[in-house]
Amino acid sequence: MGFDLALVRRAAVIGVAAMLSALLAGCGDTPGDLNEEAYQPLSPKLLALMQQKGTTLRAPVLVRAFKKEAEVQIWKMKADGHYTLLKSYPICRWSGQLGPKKHEGDRQVPEGFYSIGPAQMNPRSHYYLSFNVGYPNTYDRAHGYTGGQIMVHGVCSSAGCFSMTDQQIAEIFAIAREAFAGGQRVIQMQSYPFYMTSENFAAYRADPNIAFWKELKIGDDNFEVTKKDVAVGVCNGHYVFNAVPADGSPFDPTGPCPQLKRDKDVALEVAAKEKSDDAKVAELVAGGVKAVRTVYVDGGQNAAFSKLRILDVSRPAALAAGPVNVPIKMAKTPSADQLEAAKRKAEAAAAAAEKRAAAAHAVAYVDPNQIVPEKPPQSAQAASAPPAHGMSIPAIHLGMPALGGLFAPKPAPQPPVQSALAKPQPVQALPPPQHLATRGEATRHVLLRGTDTKSAANLDRRPRDQAKIDRRKLGQAKVDKPKAAAADAADAAEGATPPLPPSFSAAASGH
């Protein structure tokens, strides 16, 4: 007997814990006594409205909810298979902020596409009547969102639920009950942060949830175009609407999306609607619509209840404060004219840079043999020629005369190698390298350093082979050293190997 009492106590503790867990997870609606209200018939007025809308008592149902506008819409299917709006119900209380529910206890009303089956209807609700919306769905689980027990119920009290008045939930419950009795297996519930209008998307364009809301809008567009249940899939962590894998395989909620197959006509209509809505958003932004984020103390309620005195509403102080639209600073969007002007400016700058690069390339890679040397007057040439004693001849740089040798390295004078008996000679700077553009010009310059102007001119007029012979004769006649050095340098310029000067020989022999 004691063992049985222990089992009873343990079961009671488990039951209480489960009830507390449900309360913390969401609205915490646990089964109570069977309510007679769950079986009350629909009013003649509502039945007449159904007939007026072209639908019937047991035709399928679709539910749509909008948090910001605090509204639940009930749609009924007509004989042609399309849904028509039957009735809108103002929400008495919803909690949290705009945006999806992500974890248990955040008081958020979920956003997304959910499914309601007969087993989710609760005729024994402690909140008069209720039904579970089906959070978390496949999308929520793919993102690791937690929590549960999110209901549409009465009693105007919310901790993450859609809270209605008792009269409202009784009517909504009865509409769903009759649809299930007519053979509907699942009721689709579409939960949105607000009406999916261009005005709202222009205002909330900078909200942190905007990417998710644009994804929901695609589902809304599919419904607006077809007025039918939207086929919902999830792959790669994203919603996929009115599409199926082309190979017939199931969707992998966290895996890559496969190739999809869609109804072409529906897809084209949805794309056209999206394009039109985007153009309207751009027009509103250009017209000065400010980017905002709406902040609530804790949810809100429909304006229809603002003048009504509801004693049992949850957190009335939070409702009294009302929502606040917080402006969000954004970078100024340039106009079409500004974008076109910037494009032209960039293109002009690119063209100018290309011309400069082409010019630099042409100069850097010019053929030295095609350069016409600047021939200075002989008097100036002779006057600028430095003596050749005691100095080495630096390399002659060809090219870049058009830019004054801007890209050519400057020649650096090198000190001569002298013996102990050699007398130091003054070193004079060579003329600018642009006057030494060709080999012939360089040869004439070397000759001028060892001979007078007249002798150099005579040598220059004779054939090159004869000039060599004459220089050898001059060497045999024991010409003075300056002329011999000039002749050796000339031979070097022609490709011959000149004899070493005495100073180099002395240094090589170690003397």
Task: Describe the protein.
The protein has 511 residues and is an alpha+beta fold. Helices cover 39% and strands 13% of the residues. It has helices at residues 2-25, 44-52, 138-142, 166-181, 198-203, 210-226, 264-286, 316-321, 336-364, 378-384, 439-450, 453-461, 464-476, 481-493, 502-509; strands spanning 61-66, 71-77, 83-90, 112-116, 121-122, 130-132, 151-153, 162-163, 187-192, 232-235, 238-241, 243-245, 260-262, 292-295, 324-327. It has a five-stranded mixed beta sheet, with helices on both faces. Strands 5-6-7-8 form a four-stranded mixed beta sheet, with helices on one face. Helix 11 packs antiparallel against helix 14 (481-493). The radius of gyration is 48 Å and the shape is elongated. It starts with a helix and ends with a helix.
Topology:
Blueprint: H1 2-25, H2 44-52, E1 61-66, E2 71-77, E3 83-90, E4 112-116, E5 121-122, E6 130-132, H3 138-142, E7 151-153, E8 162-163, H4 166-181, E9 187-192, H5 198-203, H6 210-226, E10 232-235, E11 238-241, E12 243-245, E13 260-262, H7 264-286, E14 292-295, H8 316-321, E15 324-327, H9 336-364, H10 378-384, H11 439-450, H12 453-461, H13 464-476, H14 481-493, H15 502-509
Parallel strand pairs: 1-9, 7-8
Antiparallel strand pairs: 1-2, 2-3, 4-9, 5-6, 6-7, 10-11, 12-13, 14-15
Helix pairs in contact: 6-7, 11-14, 13-14
